[in-house]
Amino acid sequence: MTLDALVRNPLSWGVVLLAFGLWILLPRGSTRGWWLGFTLTMVSLGLFASRMPVIGDWATTGTFAIMAAVTIISAVLTVTMRNPVYCAIWFALSLLATAGLFMFQGAQFLGVATVVVYAGAILVTFLFVLMLANPEGHAFYDRLSWEAPLSAATGAVTIGVLTFALVGVFHPHDQPFAQIPAVEADRSAEILSSEHMAHLGAQLFSKHLVAVELAGTLLLVALVGCVAIVAEAKARRGKRAERSGGALR
Amino acid sequence: MNEVALLENYLLVGALLFGLGLVGFFSRRNMIVMFLCAEMMLQGVSVSLVAWGRYHNNWDGQSLVIFILTVAACEAAIALALVVALYQRSGSLDIAFWHDLREDNLPAYTDHEIPEVTDDTPQHWPTLTVSGLEPVHNPEEETHRAEV
User: Fold this and answer.
1) Which of B121, B92, B105, B113 is nearest to B31 (CA)?
2) What 8-state DSSP symbol labels residue A143?
3) Which among A47, A51, A85, A110 is the top mutation candidate for probing chain B, defined by the most B β-carbons within 10 Å of its own β-carbon?
4) Are A161 and A1 in contact (CB under 8 A)?
5) If we measure between CA atoms, which residue out of A212, A130, A65, A114 comes closest to residue B43?
6) Helix, strand or coil, per DSSP, at residue B30
7) Domain for residue B113, yes or no?
8) Do B18 and A22 touch (CB under 8 A)?
9) Under an 8 A CB cutoff, do A122 and B12 touch?
10) Which of A29, A83, A135, B6 lies 20 to 30 Å (CA to CA) from residue A202?
11) DSSP letter, residue B94
């Protein structure tokens, strides 16, 4: 790819705008220019989306576009909000839209599991810890970022490399139509079958049986690990209190 | 529905989620937000895996995402136990408190300017219309706060 083609490519402008937009959006001392950063980020996301092919009729494409937009915009706000509680809530919205994307692909179980496990369990636990640790919700370290320009550029370049690879593989030499052969198969008999759970469960407990057992063991190990970490922290606190002659809080 | 176009669109969404999570993990200083961003990167990978599973018309993508969910749950449990233990030692969720763990040849990190913490999202509480008799006030009870 020549330099000229690179400059004419909207994706390169998308990468540059995304880096600048995220840099402006990331927490700093002030919120000046927030709307500028938000607009730049949205324009760059639009540039990325403009290179993507249309999925189907307008209803299908529109449904996908709405869910994808909610996912990505909430993700941007999760990363850049200064109040960590808002971060968690935007992340929940992003997860809900991701669950919608899973449903759109016919992955019904994963859609439900994402809502139940992620949004229901993991995120609420995060919020619990957040409210235990930082009840007033305003701390100076939420208004600072490590190396904001550098990390925004790193993320934008990562996204750019992935997108360039994607477009280069699917549309080599700027062809509008994908050059990847479609896997011709009867999806309604397999991945889109009406007995989704039965198929998925059969697959999980036959082909991946050892992995399921390992995953169960991993959950047990994580449980033991959590208890060990908390018990050790408690013991250390007790020792420190003993040394200083004070009672345990 | 065009399956190849579907795959390409989903891969873009996955790449964006992964990259945004990466930015957050690199730049945020709150430990909990860092872990949220790590979870977001896992979500990006999950979206890509489900798309590939649909394209190839088999169940391996979705099975792998189930294992990702399991590992994410374990990771969240361990991470939160660690965050609570670290919080009890440092008194804040700031990851910069732990910069003693850096490499020998790196300079210490100092905050050059600490931004003033103001409540920039003022709360507007709703007001209720007055009704009924005003109850007897007990000032001791009103000003009492349980120690946090």
Assistant:
1) B92
2) G
3) A110
4) no
5) A114
6) strand
7) no
8) no
9) no
10) B6
11) B
Q: How many CB atoms lie within 10 A of CB B29?
A: 22
Spell B35-52 as b/e; 16+ CB within 10 A means b.
bbbbbbbbbbbbbbbbbb
Report the DSSP beta bridge partners of residue B94.
B30
Domains for chain A: give ranges and CATH numbers: 3-187 (1.20.120.1200)
**What residue numbers bound the domain in which B65 lies?**
3-94
pTM for this model (two decimals): 0.86
Which pLDDT tens digit goes with each residue over B67-100?
Answer: 999 999 999 999 989 888 888 888 888 888 888 8
Selected for mutation to probe chain B from A30, A74, A98 (highest B CB count within 10 Å) is: A98
pLDDT digits (tens, 9 = 90+) for A161-197: 999 998 888 888 777 777 777 777 788 878 888 888 8
Cβ atoms A130, A88 nearer than 8 A = yes
Q: Which residues contact residue A113 at a Cβ distance below 8 angstroms, ignoring those fewer than 6 apart?
A: B66, B69
Contact criterion met (CB < 8 Å) for A182 and B63: no
Residue type, A102: F
Tell me the residue ranges of DSSP E strands in chain A: none
Query: Is position B45 within any domain?
Result: yes
For residue B94, report the phi and psi dihedrals to the nearest 5 degrees. -75, 125
The model's pLDDT over A115-161, given as tens digits with 9 standing for 90+, comes to 998 888 888 888 888 888 776 667 788 888 888 899 999 999 999 99
Which residue do the tokens 């990771």 mark?
B75
In the numeric block, which tokens belong to residue B87?
């919080």
Query: Which residue among A98, A139, A208 sits closest to B92, beta carbon to beta carbon?
Result: A139
Does residue B103 form part of some domain? no
Calculate the dihedral angle through the C-alpha atoms of B17, B22, B28, B31, rounding to the nearest 10 degrees.
Answer: 90
| CB contact at 8 A, B62 and A110 | yes
ipTM of the complex: 0.90
Task: Report the domain count for chain B.
Answer: 1
- CATH code assigned at B19: 1.10.287.3510
Nearest to A141 by CA among B94, B120, B87, B110: B94
CB contact under 8 A, A118 and B117: no
Q: Kindly state the DSSP code that residue B101 receives in the 8-state scheme.
A: G
